[in-house]
Design goal:
- The chain has 334 residues and is an alpha/beta fold.
- It has 13 helices and twelve strands.
- The strands form three sheets. Strands 2, 3, 4, 5, 8, 9, 11 and 12 form an eight-stranded mixed beta sheet that branches. The protein has a two-stranded parallel sheet with strand order 1-10. The chain has a two-stranded parallel ribbon with strand order 6-7.
- Helix 3 crosses helix 11.
- The radius of gyration is 20 Å and the shape is globular.
């Protein structure tokens, strides 16, 4: 079995006509809808990280057409669960929207016996935001002789005290990438979960952990320090954001090609007219050149979708992750 969390960009692009039609419906609704004073975009991860940056760049384009003002709130904790639980309890009036990566929706149901939210009923799909790959990087505590993932695993096996890595959250895709690497090599890589990738990167730079598995954009922004080295990227092909870095597949890990996505959701039972309106607003925002270029600096590819496409993607990815989680044997207590 191929463990792949990637999905077809072309399949989404083929539905551009449907997205345009939905946006048109949304624009008709805008004319009759009251413009909210403030839209709050809720992310479950720390300021400065990938999730936060997506929210802030998109927020600048949602005002004043969708709302008079758009602000970002970082409600961190429980690997992104707190943000989803918070939005679940908000009124579906268009003033609060959730932005979340896939792990909380497609992996967590497999690792937690009980979650404080039901993906099928407690949030309303609006649109994809962007897609991206992951990087696996090492810091100053790992000798310069370590040039690739196989080197790192050999070094970690010989140096158990340094056999560790950090990720943005327990049970996230980056967590499982590191766990799969250790499992495949027979190395006990200890995992450290953080509230987002940036806190993990700070510990990496400080020599407190040996490696970080996280969104590639969170890693590349630290390369200028000279203390961080990317050993691999997770996509099926090399990333245009780190073209000289080989994929995991290229390095012999044939079943490890992973990409991920961020998406936007309203609280439960949002009216179809509101969903269409917000979908159109996100589609317009994500098409702006400065947003596309800005997201690129963080290793992100802008990719809006229809609500139906997002719902189907969640369904497929949830099924895809079931055997991966089972093979690792990781569970978490809610």
């Amino acid at each position: 079995m191929t463990f792949s969390a990637s999905f077809s960009r072309r399949a989404l692009l083929h539905t551009a006509g449907a997205s345009a039609l939905l946006a048109s419906v949304g624009r008709q609704a805008w004319a009759q809808a009251a413009v909210p004073e403030t839209l709050r975009i809720i992310t479950g991860f720390a300021a400065g990280g990938t999730s936060d940056n997506i929210c802030r760049r998109v927020a600048t384009k949602l005002s004043p057409d969708y709302a008079k003002a758009a602000v970002v709130e970082n409600r961190t904790g429980a690997g992104g669960q707190i943000a989803i639980q918070y939005v679940k309890g908000q009124p579906a009036d268009g003033t609060t929207v959730l932005q979340t990566p896939t792990s909380m929706l497609t992996i967590y149901p497999h690792i937690y016996k009980k979650l404080p939210y039901d993906v099928a009923t407690d949030i309303t799909p609006v649109s994809l935001g962007c897609i991206f790959d992951f990087g696996f990087a090492v810091g100053p505590s790992v000798p310069a002789s370590v040039k690739n993932v196989q080197d790192f695993l050999a070094w970690a096996k010989a140096n158990p005290a340094g056999a560790n890595f950090g990720s943005p959250a327990a049970g996230s895709t980056p967590h499982f990438i590191g766990a799969l690497l250790g499992k495949n090599a027979g190395v006990d890589l200890k995992h450290a979960a953080y509230r987002g990738t940036q806190p993990a990167m700070l510990d990496l730079l400080g020599g407190n952990i040996s490696a970080v598995s996280g969104p590639i954009g969170d890693i590349t922004q630290h390369l200028a320090s000279g203390k961080v080295r990317i050993l691999s990227v997770s996509g099926a092909k090399r990333s245009r954001f780190a073209p000289d870095v080989p994929t995991l597949v290229e390095q012999g890990f044939q079943d490890m090609a992973f990409s991920e996505w961020f998406a936007f959701y309203l609280p439960p039972k949002a009216a179809p007219e509101l969903v269409a309106r917000l979908n159109g607003a996100f589609k317009t925002a994500l098409a702006q050149k400065d947003v596309v270029d800005g997201l690129s600096t963080f290793g992100l590819e802008a990719m809006p979708s229809t609500p139906a496409e997002l719902a189907e993607l969640v369904r497929k990815d949830t099924a895809r992750w079931a055997p991966i989680v089972k093979s690792i044997g990781f569970t978490a207590e809610a």
